[in-house]
């Protein structure tokens, strides 16, 4: 069941009133939360050291991958030579 249609002017006034009421409430909580956010600002040296640790881990993983690929290529070469000896 539908109610009465709301005029555009009434809708505009309701929206404006809601916006102003929301602005009033958030401005009060915004000033309180901004004070606590200052204490939550991360320390840049901590981020730099964690970034360096991640970079070192990635370098280690890359080196392991290179060693493994060399091992695989060595095995492929040995297999190829064995096949050549058997067939040739």
From TrEMBL:
Signal peptide: 1-31
Transmembrane segment boundaries: none
InterPro entries with a match to the protein in the record: DUF4094
Pfam families referenced in this protein's UniProt entry, alphabetically: DUF4094
GO MF annotations, alphabetized: glycosyltransferase activity
Metal-binding listed as a keyword: no
Sorted UniProt keywords: Glycosyltransferase, Signal, Transferase
Limits of the DUF4094 domain: 7-85
Protein name: Putative beta-1,3-galactosyltransferase 8
Organism this protein belongs to: Morella rubra
